[in-house]
Amino acid sequence: MQERTGDEKIKVNVPSYAIQLIPKFLKSREKDIKEVEDSLKRKDFETIERLGHSMKGAGSMYGFDGISELGKLIELSAKDKNTVDIMNSLSELKDYLSRIEIVNE
């Protein structure tokens, strides 16, 4: 994923048909983060892998390629039971979500 620094906004061009769906979509990603964190505590890598796979597919559908990239990393890290990489990807995902700016061009 492309490195970004500071508070730089990440502009995401969302298709017109999806604009009204975005708040619910982003709220679901926040729930995914919480569920991955809870699953990490239980060492439930199967659930983490499933959530990563889901994020990988859902992100690009709405124009959030960063979510897809990080979802893929979470999925692969869960397959390897690599908790450090999962935590790093979660940190990047939180940062990504905090800096999103929705545009519709």
Question: Care to give the gist of this entry?
Answer:
By secondary structure, the chain is mostly helical.
List its salient traits.
mainly alpha, 66% helix, single chain, 105 residues, two-stranded parallel ribbon, Four Helix Bundle (Hemerythrin (Met), subunit A)
Q: What is the average per-residue confidence, as pLDDT, rounded to a whole number?
A: 92
SSE string, helices as H and strands as E: EHHHHE
- The CATH architecture category equals Up-down Bundle
CATH topology: Four Helix Bundle (Hemerythrin (Met), subunit A)
Strand content: 5-15%
Describe it for me?
The protein has helices at residues 22-42, 45-61, 65-79, 83-98, and strands at 10-13, 100-103. It has a two-stranded parallel ribbon. The chain has a single domain (11-103), classed as Up-down Bundle (Four Helix Bundle (Hemerythrin (Met), subunit A)), CATH 1.20.120.160. It is mainly α. Helix 1 (22-42) packs antiparallel against helix 2 (45-61).
List the helices and strands and how they pair.
Elements: E1 10-13, H1 22-42, H2 45-61, H3 65-79, H4 83-98, E2 100-103
Parallel strand pairs: 1-2
Helix pairs in contact: 1-2, 1-4, 2-3, 3-4
